[in-house]
Amino acid sequence: MVLKRFTLVPVLLMLAGCNITVLNPKSATGKDQAFLIWFSFGLMLIVLLVVFFLFFRFVATYRYTDKKANFIPEDVHGNKWLELTWTILPILLLIVLAVPTVAITYNQSPISEVLKKDEAVQIEVEAQQYQWTFTHEGGKTSNQALVIPEGKTIRLQLKSKDVIHSFWVPALGGKVDVMPHKDLYYEIKNPEVGTYHGKCAEYCGLEHAKMIFTAKVVTEEAYEQYVKE
Amino acid sequence: MQISMFNQTFELPSDVLAAWIFTIIAGGFVLLYVIKKKKLPLIWDYIRTTNHRKIGTLYILFGVVYFLRAGLDAVFIRLQLAFPDQSFWVFQQEKYNEVFTTHGTIMIFFSAMPILLGLMNVAVPLQIGARDLAFPFLNAVGFWLFFFGALFFNLAFFVNQAPSIGWTGYAPYSLNEYTPGVSTDYYVFGIQLSGLGTIFTALNLIVTIFRHRAPGMKLTRMPLFTWASLITSYLILIAFSVLAVALYLLMFDRLFGTAFFSGSEGDPVYWQHLFWIFGHPEVYILALPAFGIFSDIIPTFSSKRIFGYPTMVVSLALIGFLGFTVWAHHMFTVGLGPMANTFFALTTMTIAVPTGIKVFNWLFTIRGGLLRMTAPMLFALGFIPSFVMGGVTGVMLSVSAADFQFHDSHFVVAHFHYVIIASTIFGIFGGIYYWYPKITGYRLNEKLGKWHFWLFLIGFHLTFLPMHISGLQGMPRRVYTYGADEGLTGLNFTSTIGAFVMGAAVSIFLWNIVITHRRGVTVGADPWNGRTLEWTVDSPSPEHSFDPMPVVDQMDPFWYAKQEKRQLAICANPRPAPPDEQSMIPISMGLSLFVLAAALTYSLYWLAIAGGVGIFVLMAIRSWTDRTIIEEEEEA
Ligand code: HEM
Ligand SMILES: [Cu+2]
Ligand SMILES: [Cu+2]
20 to 30 A Cα–Cα from B156, which one of A12, A49, A119, B429? Predict the structure, then answer.
């Protein structure tokens, strides 16, 4: 019974993967992150399966039965080679995981000066207790509703008026904190048209749960239109 | 409800009122029981005791009480989250924020930590052949500081001032500007008091383990639980000192107008660094003792020595050391930059290596053994797969770019409950079943123990497995509600059912304690066919243990002596036992600091000074009346 429940886990996850927001992202940024999640999950599944296999085998084989009542197990002190095996193999596994981790972390961390010059769509995000204000190039502002054009790189410049908040649109990418004392930057690359839930992900007080917004990705023409309105 | 008193009106919400009524009724019953059964002399004895087993018992007792309180908080959390747009009782907004704060804080500081310290108090001296901790008086002081710190923190709720800053207390939200009033001060001083006690106990354990081992008990022959306690004590010493500093700075910011965590000179990120330099080692402070417990339980019930003892010790130490190099993995999204993020991602991954070594060594201890499925063994076995499930999500979280998605979502809630419950809580339950005879002389009922285990295991997975998915589905942590259109309903409802299953399991555990004491069937010194020294002394352990003092000739000395049908050799003139005494000073010290904390919280500076003076007077009295010093001088 136990065995069955545990083997169900990965199956369930796979099935559910089809419509879980974060694993079904709508931007290049989110896709890189989803790739890392799947990749690390796959590697870890190897570990998990090995441990589960050994565990259930050993427990089933060596549990006490009345037949074995007088059996006294042989003392084993250890085994250098076995122990080396489960030291070195995990290290190799982690190196495999470390490479894309480092690559994508560097790739996704915007460096503010470089960004100033490029073609990104700039949006200022200002958070304060329980609301969001988005300011577009040209000065158009909106509350609780972020509108961005599809297919571009969106560069967010975030700052808070009071406590720490965190900007998160699960379908478009990871979160980034919104700090009171300094501006942070975050990039969402190549978003796809749609309307997505946005949230505050850092606990910020009474109505933290209700500090939500919508993120609407529209076509480029619609965006031009919107900014001019 | 509103109440008028001292010319002031207090708002008294129905949950606080219910707590008062419940506490008064329950307190009445306890009082009745105490008087009817003539337990007052016993309580009087425990108040003044400095004996390690009695102090350990007190730690465990109060840890369990607070586990129930924080568990009730968890049930309220789960009821509020059972359905979308739900309004359960009062637990929305402010009350929800309070309830997750108190749940987390109490579970960590006032339940898991004290129970572990209690088990160390009971078992470490017995495992190494020490007659008590090195400084019994200090041990009592440590306990009473925990007691009054926890009491102080818990009182906040009864005056409707429960803190609501999360167990992490992030600035600037925890500063005066955003949480004026006294609620956050309850958090600051409650933790500060008990943390100080924890540091004392850690020092005590270190000295005990180095100075009071039985003859022949070399470090390389020490049981792994004692090793784990030693390494944990070092972690406590460093981590809790950092926490103390952080809390002092926060106190100064809140009460005396400094600006360490805000303004142009200060920086809220400093708090996060300090907190996590404490906070990450803290999770190892919770986990390593549990690893130690399992490393003792598994060989005992496999009738086979631990596989790779030296590696087990080295990996404990490595985990402890590496635990100090990873704190900023909690801060990937605060803008430290790619360099710092990758550094902390890689250090975090390396911790998986020694942890993995331990898991495989446990597995190979089982291999070839003869597994007796007792209640402690079930918890140890249940720990292995459950903990590995939490471990692998830990590695996933260390992938810094992916953590931008995981961070502060229910995925993280799932992860840390998997690690903490599978290691610490399973370890605590396993340890309580295992050492219960040493504490009380009784053995807990095995059949109920099995029910407890299976229900708890099932409830635990049912509660927390769905949270991985709800996190990835976009549910942040610390939110009191979610929308019906977010695809979170089924997942959350499942979690809530799981929480009730766990609740049922804990009720069985309590019932088990009740009937075990009612039946009152005592067991002998060695009910489990044990391997280590604690099973050579009577159950419950006598106040003058190890008389005569055994000589240790190898690891698991008692087991091998039994195998070879011989007695352990005896040492004629052992090291003198630490002085045992009865004293009211430890509890008075706790009380003085309690007064100091309460006075500072309410800015009653004259009272604060009184509390501070009280502490110094008590120290002076102690110095003049300390028997150990007087006796040494007389001898000289
Ligand atoms: C017994 C069953 C338990 C249940 C059902 C449970 C449930 C929960 C839930 C649902 C949350 C998330 C609240 C939110 O973010 O909105 C939470 C938070 C937390 N839990 Fe538990 N929990 C349990 C046991 C434990 C134990 C044993 C510990 C530690 C020893 C623990 C430590 C924490 C901590 C530290 C938090 C974070 C609080 C915060 O966000 O400030 N929990 N728990
Ligand atoms: Cu928020
Ligand atoms: Cu950590």
Answer: B429
Q: Which residues of A touch B474 (CB under 8 A)?
A: 21-22, 168, 170-171, 197, 199
Calculate mean pLDDT across residues B333-351. 91
Rounded to the nearest 5°, which phi and psi values hold at B288? -60, -45
pLDDT, tens digit, for every residue of B590-627?
999 999 999 999 989 999 999 999 999 999 999 888 77
Strand partners, B189: none
A210 CA distance to ligand 2 centroid (A)? 8
d(CA B216, CA B560): 15
In a domain, A195, yes or no: yes
Residue A194: CATH number of its domain: 2.60.40.420
Q: Are B345 and A54 an interchain contact pair (Cβ–Cβ within 8 Å)? A: no
Q: Which of B413, B418, B464, B493 to mutate to test the pocket of ligand 1 (most atoms within 8 A of CB)?
A: B413
pLDDT band at B487 (very low <50, low <70, confident <90, very high): confident
| Domain extent listing, chain B | 1-38, 39-635
- With an 8 Å Cβ cutoff, are B363 and A58 in contact? yes
pLDDT digits (tens, 9 = 90+) for B149-199: 999 999 999 988 889 999 999 988 999 989 888 999 999 999 999 999 999
Q: Residue B605's CB: how many other CB atoms inside 10 A? A: 10
| A132 Cα to chain B: minimum distance (Å) | 17
Does the beta carbon of A115 lie under 8 angstroms from any beta carbon of chain B?
no
Chain A positions in Cβ-Cβ contact with residue B333 (cut-off 8 Å): 166, 174-177
Give the C-alpha separation, A151 to A133, whole Å.
23
CA–CA separation, B80 vs A111, rounded Å?
Answer: 42
B368: left (phi over 0), alpha (psi -120 to 50) or beta: left
Tens digits of per-residue pLDDT, B69-121?
999 999 999 999 999 888 888 778 888 999 999 999 999 999 999 999 999 99
Per-residue DSSP letters for A137-206? Answer: TTS-EEESEEEEETTSEEEEEEEESSS-EEEE-TTT---EEE-SSS-EEEEEES--SEEEEEEE-S--ST
Report yes or no on A221 lying in a domain: yes
Give A158 Cα–ligand 2 centroid separation in angstroms: 14
Atom number of ligand 1 nearest to Cα B167 = 41
Q: B39-635: what CATH class?
A: mainly alpha
Task: Find out whether the peptide bond into B540 is cis, omega within 30 degrees of 0.
Answer: yes
Domain annotation covers residue A89: no
Query: Per-residue confidence at B631, pLDDT binned at 50, 70, 90?
Result: low
Q: How far is CA B391 from the centre of its chain?
A: 20
- How many structural domains compose chain A? 1
Residue B595 CB partners (closer than 8 Å, separation 6+):
B607, B608, B610, B611, B614
Does residue A50 form part of some domain? Answer: yes
For chain A, the straight-line distance linking the first and the last C-alpha, in angstroms and rounded, comes to: 62
Domain of A216 in residue numbering reads as 1-66+110-229
A167: β partners? A176, A200
Which ranges of B223-326 does DSSP label H, i.e. alpha helix?
Answer: 224-255, 268-302, 309-322
